[in-house]
Design a protein that fits this description.
The complex is a heterodimer of chains A (404) and B (137). Chain A is globular, with a radius of gyration of 22 Å. Chain A is 40% helix and 13% strand. With 404 residues, chain A is of the alpha/beta class. In chain A, helix 7 links the parallel strand 5 and strand 6. In chain A, strands 2-8-7-6-5-3-4 form a seven-stranded mixed beta sheet, sandwiched between helices. In chain A, strands 9-10-13-12 form a four-stranded antiparallel beta sheet. Chain A has a two-stranded parallel ribbon with strand order 1-11. With 137 residues, chain B is α+β, with helices and mostly antiparallel strands. Chains A and B meet through helix 9, helix 11 and helix 13 of A and strand 1, strand 2, strand 3, helix 2 and helix 5 of B.
Chain lengths: 404, 137
């Protein structure tokens, strides 16, 4: 077993060597511009792009023409939301999203808000999922778009996408989903799930960074978006810019591998995740799961270790790469807005760790991580005045703390 | 973020972890911060009533590595000082000693606050104490 252990697969993933192999010839040998129509180099590049487009479409039940290549999911989110807002401005100015969305969606919506659009930010329930009845009530006759992520990047919770899509379809409202964390991990079919647009990123699924895609439905309904990057009219005018051919080859290959191995990989990842959880719960008192376990990605675990601050915990497990919802890991000193949206106390948010298990993790690594965490949490609790008070039977919520 | 060697040393080998009897008149207890802010420090001193010298200092901290290191360092510095000397410890001394980055300065401020709170508690207890010799029988 090699240290450090990477368990932060929601942030990014290692590129699968098979993906690298597929990409390499497109840097040096077949380096053509896919838009060059009059020579062999261009044709080879175009063929590679076409293949990639089909591989992506096949994974999500779309047609190749519905795949628009971008630089990544942040651009895809921007293109989908701003593109629809601009295109359908005459129809309405109201967009519905959720407080736990990725910043690429939230900040895009905030920008639109400044430009006169009205945004509804739906809350989530204690398990991280939205209340469908609240969504129903949020629609107005001015609503043009709903943007709700498939699976959350911190909690791994999977929203009721099919039902959300159905509610949108019934009302003639377009539905965009940020699918970054879910694609290639759980089965997705844009038709069964009633999805009109979906953001895709390669580097979250063992592909390269800097390439992604936006699925844009062409039929029932035909979705139109206003381009946000102008130029040579690539991607049927929706996204100009020379195509990143090696990146697209990598994204395509990554999709094909995920699709082919999903069934067996899901079983393996869920086993590792459940083992990690069971070991931590057996070895420590007062650990809490954040978010629904039932509606959740198989490879995610988000846990709070009460009375221990997240950053100090990360410091103690410095040979394990994970993320914390603790304020100290950010510059703002605010704990994770996603955890806060669940209604968990700030102290619990400060104590949270996100584990993202991936294709290259082994059972031996999971055993090591569990043992190490138990050891460090116990050590830090020895140091924790809060743990001491709790053990003395003091209810911490009744203590009046000295604030600045 | 990269931690300084001194922060790492205090984190890995915290000095003077523990608790003193908070009901003792010779012990001053300072508890500062709040769980929702991500930092709570408890700092205790035991003072020799005759000499006014801090003979023992203990801490427990919920917080990041820099907060743990700041309070651990504070206990080291407190021991052997008089209460008046202890009040001269400034948060900037802690920042310099541990090479804390700007985003962690609040940890050193909290440690200074904890020292002051502990001394304040000790002095409040002392002023309430009626010396045994003058006790009314």
């Amino acid at each position: 077993m090699k240290l450090p252990i990477y368990l932060d697969n929601h942030a990014t993933t290692r590129v699968d060597p098979r993906v690298v192999d597929a990409m390499l010839p497109y840097f040096t040998e077949h380096f053509g511009n896919a838009a060059s129509r009059n020579h062999e180099f261009g044709w080879e590049a175009e063929q590679a792009v076409d293949k990639g487009r089909k591989q992506i479409a096949d994974l999500i039940g779309a047609t190749p023409k519905e795949i628009i290549f971008t630089s990544g999911a942040t651009e895809s989110d921007n293109l989908a939301i701003k593109g629809v807002a601009e295109m359908y401005a005459e129809k309405g100015n109201h967009i519905i999203t959720v407080v736990t969305e990725h910043k690429a969606v939230l900040d895009t919506c905030k920008k639109l808000e400044k430009n006169g659009y009205r945004i509804t930010y739906l809350p989530v329930m204690g398990d991280g999922l939205i209340d469908l009845d609240m969504l129903k009530e949020a629609f107005t006759d001015k609503t043009i778009l709903v943007s709700i992520m498939y699976a959350n990047n911190e909690l791994g919770v999977i929203q009721p996408i099919r039902e959300i899509g159905k509610l949108c379809r019934e009302r003639g409202v377009l539905f965009h989903t940020d699918g970054v964390q879910a694609i290639g991990k759980v089965p997705i079919n844009v038709n069964a799930d009633n999805i009109d647009m979906m953001s895709i990123s390669a580097h979250k699924m063992y592909g390269p960074k800097g390439v992604g895609a936006l699925y844009v439905r062409r039929r029932n309904p035909r979705v139109q978006i206003t381009a946000q990057i102008d130029g040579g009219g690539h991607e049927r005018g929706m996204r100009s810019g020379t195509l990143n051919v090696p990146g697209i080859v990598g994204l395509g290959e990554a999709c094909e591998l995920c699709g082919r191995e999903m069934e067996t990989e899901t079983v393996r990842l869920r086993y590792l995740r459940d083992k990690l959880r069971a070991k931590l719960e057996a070895g420590l008192d007062e650990v809490y799961i954040n978010g629904s376990m039932e509606h959740r990605l198989p490879h995610n675990l988000n846990m709070s270790f009460a009375y221990v601050e997240g950053e100090s915990l990360l410091m103690g497990i410095n040979d394990i790469a994970v993320s914390s919802g603790s304020a100290c890991t950010s510059a703002t000193l605010e704990p994770s807005y996603v955890l806060k949206a669940l209604g968990v106390g700030d102290d619990i948010a400060h104590s949270s760790i996100r584990f993202g298990i991936g294709r290259f993790n082994t059972e031996e690594e999971i055993d090591y991580v569990a043992a190490k965490l138990i050891d460090v949490v116990n050590k830090l609790r020895e140091l924790s005045p809060l743990y001491e008070m709790a053990k003395e039977g003091i209810d911490l919520s009744t203590v009046s703390w000295a604030h600045d | 973020m990269a931690y300084s060697d001194k922060v790492l040393d205090h984190y890995n080998n915290p000095r003077n972890v523990g608790s003193l009897d908070k009901s003792s008149p010779s012990v001053g207890t300072g508890m500062v911060g709040a769980p929702e802010c991500g930092d709570v420090m408890k700092l205790q001193i035991r003072v020799n009533d005759e000499s006014g010298i801090i003979e023992e200092a203990k801490f427990k901290t919920f917080g990041c590595g820099s907060a743990i290191a700041s309070s651990s360092l504070a206990t080291e510095w407190l021991k052997g000082k008089t209460v008046d000397q202890a009040l001269e410890i400034k948060n900037t001394d802690i920042v310099n000693e541990l090479s804390l980055p700007p985003v962690k300065i609040h940890c050193s401020v909290l440690a200074e606050d904890a020292i002051k709170a502990a001394i304040g508690d000790y002095r409040a207890k002392q002023s309430k104490q009626v010396p045994a010799a003058h006790a009314v029988v």
